[in-house]
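not sure who needs this but someone in the group chat was asking about DUF389 domain-containing protein from Nocardia iowensis so here u go. i didnt clean anything up, its just raw.
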Amino acid sequence: MLHLRMISPPELTDKVLAVLAANPGATHVTLARGVALEPAGDLIQADVAREAGNEVLAELTDLGICKTGGITLGPVETVLSEAADRAVEAAPGDPSDAVVWEELVAQTHEESTLNSTFLAFLTIACLLAAVGVATDSPVTIVGAMVVGPEFGPLAAFAVGLVRRDFRLARRSAIALAIGFPVAMLVTLVATLLWEQFGWITLSGVENIKNVDFIYQVGPFSLVVALLAGAAGMLSLVTAKSAALVGVFISVTTVPAAGFAVVAATLGEWNVAFMSAGQLAVNLAGIVTAGVIVLALRPRAGREAGPLDRFMRWIGMRSLVDR
């Protein structure tokens, strides 16, 4: 379930309560009049089934409460209540399938912002990838995959395309378009320095056997990217963080960027171009899979997704509506 905490101007309070009362997925409604100081107003709280979240939030937004008051939304991990059970049963759909768009947009918006933290993590990941290539170390390459923060902007870009939120899509594209070149430039400087010390040599890179998969682009490169993107988006909408870690160590975005830099400094342009191709394939595959997953996710309330319509068509109404 979701917990809603709202500050409502007194003139809108009755309308907000009416919205909550009319939706069978809302329960545990409480009201404290006049307790909010900034902005001034009444405090209303409620628990809402995830399946009903989009509909409730849309109606509250239509009232203008976001402009004159405010809404705070958060997940509820454990609820011991028969009233909550009835609300979940009454709401159409299944809780694990519900995509609460406002929650997803807020999460991906934060992770898609170009800032010093994003650049630092991406740069460290590329440096780790370069070290992994130089030492032929799969463990270091996996470390670079885990550290890399690039899935956040990729997921946000997919959400922006599906929701037609082009500001979010543009913000994500800027983070990727600036982040990768900056990280690769720093890695380039570090790689040239390591080559001067003799830590990275052409013969060493030519003889790698354990991490050569990074630049070997093939049909499974796209397959893995699509599967990883689908799993990553599912993990975001269902809050499965363990699955998201699996996504990080299954795609070769950051390792490909690091390998391209190392190969270019050594004059191995063929390998550098293949690594860049691997990077492009993985980025495109992740975004494509994310868009497909969001487009096919079951909707609830006033939204009817293609998967909902298909299940109704074949008579599996119980999987969509209870």
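also DSSP finds 15 helices and four strands in the chain. if thats useful
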